[in-house]
């Protein structure tokens, strides 16, 4: 009885500690009155201040409203107060970062619409059906002036098109140069986190398990690898850590995307998200992380990026398998070499009590089994360089740690934040400010020294998208690549080329050129389709440094595919080459730069065999460009027709017609 009385007094004292601000004195919890005006519901709920707005929204949906149509597009709205305009709370930020005042704070839970400053506007009168159709057509044809006029009249761009896309997501994935249209839509009231209803259109490119809804424009851009759209959305404040309905981040979608287009560099899109504080080790319902998926798909460059940004190399999925187990089961030797080189544990057993070596033997992947068997601990070279991150973006995890430290200083006992146990179990362990950090010990591995000489990094980078971090080997800073004297444009036997190295590639990594590359600057490597390139280092902006035919230089990573070279299960030069189906299909496609050509075409019994379409362009005068050379193009080609036999392809532009 005495213990119960003490417990009741303790609870009463904690309730009495609540001050006039609605926040308890331990600075951990707050009481908020949530109002759902459409359903005429109100309820006071208790929230942890260190929780994100996303966690708070999930709690509202679970406690207050269990079933709601398009629930992910509802948000917590802070009404106008004290001269401040009303706004929807950013789902990636903590509740502590917002001015929640009063004994019990007040927030509205409503559907995300455009926030109007002029109250007299009637949105239903503006978003008429005919206006919606014209607006969608203007967005898809990149008519910025027309879109701006609609938005200036008060048009709300937050709606779903017939195919469940949104105008902003359509601009991100359909336009070749979407930057201006994205900025116009966002300035006109489009929410960066307004989600589509169902899965991604064109799901044939994707694994069937990821056709889920709740995708934001950033998710869509990551899936389709739209670099310009990703950069623009991030610059406008879109969070790289926003979740879809399956609790997956844009980074996760950029990994599991299975599109194979040689003009797209998905690894660079992955790097862009990582540089903007994207969390790692997010997992799906089977507990498979980004690293598991990258190993399953054979994405060597993605694996390097993830490990460089401190992904858990020994993460375990629901079957107890590590990424090395996945490589052993799917015969991804190039990925396994990177994992072993970076320190993967070969002694972890899965739930069937098998190590990666035993799983490789069972799967009859003897080359990987031999690789694991001959691996020694002295071969491991972990990353010692500091990853490059965007210093202008505030990391929500660092803010949470500061808030927790502040809360502990005011109270001896502080409950743990529920947000610390979310689906993403870990985060990159590096500082978010622009300070630099040097490696504690220089890399003395002979393999690394064979590839690189110690450089003297400068204090700033010439690239606006990169951020200076000093290192003992010059990685992560503007460094001069001293290439071999056999390079064609080398004055006095050598020359320098300014390109930022991020980190050294795993030794023995080789790629095959699947798309010819012509050099634009001195120091770049001329590549022809079928060339074998030895990768030396990974650079900024999606570039790799490699060696081909005793010549070193830089080239875009989307022009090559990783391969393995075998002889009796061992890596050697000039022998059997094993490439993936994707690389083989890319080699078979004529994907070199398009050039004007003349076709002589005769009319058949059913016509020419093609469908001609016309494009609309904003403005009175059309100016041809390399990406948009004409207004008319071929929409479809009938198989076996005269057009097909003459070599016409879908999306070919018609420059001139002569009779």
UniProtKB/TrEMBL annotation:
Keywords: ANK repeat, SH3 domain. GO terms for cellular component: dendritic spine; postsynaptic density; postsynaptic membrane. Residues 1-21, 400-442 are annotated as: Disordered. Residues 409-426 have a biased composition (Low complexity). Residues 506-565 form the SH3 domain. One of its GO terms (molecular function) is ionotropic glutamate receptor binding. SUPFAM superfamilies: Ankyrin repeat, PDZ domain-like, SH3-domain. CDD domains: FERM_F0_SHANK. Coiled coil: none annotated. Residues 427-442 have a biased composition (Polar residues). Transmembrane segments: none annotated. ANK repeats lie at residues 213-245, 319-351. It comes from the Eukaryota. Residues 598-659 form the PDZ domain. Pfam families: Ank (PF00023), Ank_2 (PF12796), SH3_2 (PF07653). This is Uncharacterized protein. It comes from Adineta steineri.
